[in-house]
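Thread: adenosine-5'-diphosphate complex, take 2
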Amino acid sequence: MNILELKSVTKTYNIGSEKPVYALKGIDFAAKSGESIAIQGVSGSGKSTLLNIIGCLDSLTSGEYYLDGEKVQFSNNKHIAKIRNKKIGFVLQNFGLLNDRYVSDNIALPLLLGNISIGKADKLALSAAKSAGIDQLYDKKVKKLSGGEMQRVAIARAIVTDPEIILADEPTGSLDKATGRQIVEMLVQMAQSGKTVIIVTHDDSVAEMCSRRFYIEDGQIREVI
Ligand SMILES: Nc1ncnc2c1ncn2[C@@H]1O[C@H](COP(=O)(O)OP(=O)(O)O)[C@@H](O)[C@H]1O
Ligand SMILES: [Mg+2]
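Output below.
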């Protein structure tokens, strides 16, 4: 079964203005658990827009989005916040961490936004740190870490709520090639253990590591076979 499915999704920015931007022009796309999916395309082609809609960070203009068989209601803020917190983990190019805080705080943050005791949050955060191979950095401040280590913290934070879907927007963009490869290997492994992982990348060698590849061009998506 598809964990997520987009049907005829469009996204237009600046609707009603003199210069509307037709970022997505009718996207049909579906993903299953266990898949690692690369999304490529030139700068400005709509990759981040697509990922943000899948992650419920942005709304669609028309079309439908089904998550776990349920239609996503973008106008229902509570429902959207719940999906974002429970079902989606996000990894960004520039990590998006609180640099002055400890690794442990950063990883636990999504849990503390929910209703959970500090003790339980700490236990889950440590377990996520282990999965990301950084439990030995747990009590360090983020600003003391290397880029690769920071991205592992971001991955630990993304998986701490045990989401079904992990979205990564240019996760290797700030890393050297070898470190980037390790990060993608980790994400692909998470897919193999049953998650759905979607990686936006302009790096062919990253895309080749994924189980499926898509290309966005002129607001349309096609699979690269
Ligand atoms: N918040 C926004 N407001 C207006 N236009 C936007 C906004 N976000 C993105 N765009 C435009 O939508 C198009 C797709 O952008 P984006 O999804 O960021 O592309 P990519 O991630 O592939 O570089 C671009 O033309 C971009 O300028
Ligand atoms: Mg982008």
